[in-house]
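Cytochrome C, pasting as requested.
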Amino acid sequence: MLGPVFLTTALCHASAALALPDGDGRETVETVCAACHGVNLIERSSGYSRDDWEYLISTMVDVSGDSTRQDDILDYLAEHFPPSENRAAMPVDGPLTIRFEEWRVPTPGQRSRDPVEAPDGSIWWVGQWRDILGRIDPETGEMEEFALPSGARPHSVNIGPDGAAWYTGNRNATLGRFDPQTGEITEYPMPDEAARDPHTAEFAANGILWFSLQQSNMIGRLDPATEEVRLVTSPREGSRPYGVKVASDGTVWVACNGANCLLRVDPESMAVSEIPLPGAGTRVRRLDIDGDGIIWWVNSGLGRLGRYDPDTGDIQEWDSPSGANSHPYAIAVFDGAVWYNESGVRPDMLVRFDPDAETFQSWPIPSGPVYAGILRHMRPTLDGEALLIHQSATNHIGRVTVEGRGPM
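Structure tokens follow.
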């Protein structure tokens, strides 16, 4: 069962705007499910069979100890939210064959996310809703979980040049360093009380850790050698800095999740300049940079994939296969192509875009025996041979490899 501290936090974020249909079990669903998330997420799902609802719930909370309550929940959900096509994806066939590997993390309800590979081949993740840092040995499948400071709500994790796991304390306004050898945790608090929510971070080649603060509308940097944290505010009010990447020349690029723009940060002065993007409804969750310095981004607001050339200022966009409501989310340059996911459809689709041919191919992302989503961040392994993904709704960490190419 969920602990009382977790419930207190989660209740603050539950959306009760949607009224569930009348029926036996409604009150139980509202009591149990809405303690952790808005009931609108139930309505927004594609619906499931009773067996699949049972599996999905098992990744969130353990209600098996109360069979009456569990039956009430499952009977209600199966009757009122059966499988449907209300958010159907539009898969695209193509020449590639890929392989998915999955690991379901131990603690339910944690919302595991943002896997990253360490030099020893281990895969690290954070469980945002349960203050967890985790590690997988992909060779054996063995997993370890480490408790982070209560209330940190880690949003992302990176492996630093020092070999430590660095995480963003999204709710306690810190950056954290976990020493894998000793288990010691060092916290670096924000120097400004307005800087509330460290979000996504990336290390530059010189060891500086750059990070976004979405709701605070800021971008920050931490120098691990001096422990100095510096902050700068985005010039666009409400731009909500989100994804972060560092180019080979040291320039820091940041996505705007609240406005139609990209942000460019000078690594020395921290001066921030804005690159306006077309479409007032454009919202950029994340971005990546290819070997030629081209910036690729996902237009979550309009369901598109975008490309920006910093040298020429040229901007191009392509409609995502599942359309304007597909909500592209995570993105990575991998295997000579641009990969991203469509999080607004079911199943959550992994999409590959070939920049030379300007063609798409897509696959449903497994999430155990159900398609529940969602993928929020993806990164290649260090050798560039695989892509690390996750499904936070069902607490799965995944690895994708390209197995073969068929005829074009």
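Note for the archive: The CA atoms of residues 161 and 243 lie 20 Å apart.
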